[in-house]
Design goal:
single chain, about 150 residues, 3 helices, rod-shaped
Length: about 150
């Protein structure tokens, strides 16, 4: 082998070695970048999953809040209706007390008038009342009359 061949051979060998080392460096750099991007992707995926879970929880809270709002509206509506009924009830109770007081005063007035009026005028005004009183006063049977066949005589 000649020196020229040997020098050319070593030069080509050196160039190939440098090319292989450069490719190795490029490849290792690409691997490192891929690992870092893989880690970043995994972190982003984990954050995405957390956000997705938080979103689901917020959906549940929103549904509960909407349910609570509708329940509160129903409660307010029912409370308003109850208040209206209670006002009406109070007004009717007051009217009932007034009417009972008026009836009691009229009964007292009627009693006073009956005490003032004579019985004959009262019979003319209200014959049914005096007919009842007459029925209540039944004649007493003769206690001294002798009864026949009752077994009490000798």
């Amino acid at each position: 082998m000649s020196v020229e061949f040997s020098n050319a051979y070593q030069e080509i060998l050196f160039d190939n070695l440098v090319s292989i080392i450069k490719q190795n460096f490029v490849f290792q750099t690409q691997l490192k970048i891929a690992e870092e991007s893989g880690k970043a992707t995994a972190e982003i995926q984990a954050k995405y999953n957390e956000l997705l879970q938080a979103h689901e929880i917020l959906k549940d809270f929103k549904m509960k809040a909407d349910s609570n709002v509708s329940a509160h509206e129903d409660k307010s509506r029912l409370q308003g209706a109850l208040n209206d009924v209670m006002k009406q009830n109070t007004a009717l109770q007051k009217q009932l007390e007034e009417k009972n007081t008026e009836i009691a005063s009229l009964k007292e007035y009627v009693e006073k008038l009956e005490n003032i009026a004579t019985p004959s005028k009262l019979k003319k005004l209200n014959p049914e009342k005096f007919a009842e009183e007459i029925i209540l006063e039944q004649p007493v049977p003769n206690l001294f009359a002798i009864k026949v066949n009752d077994g009490s005589s000798f």
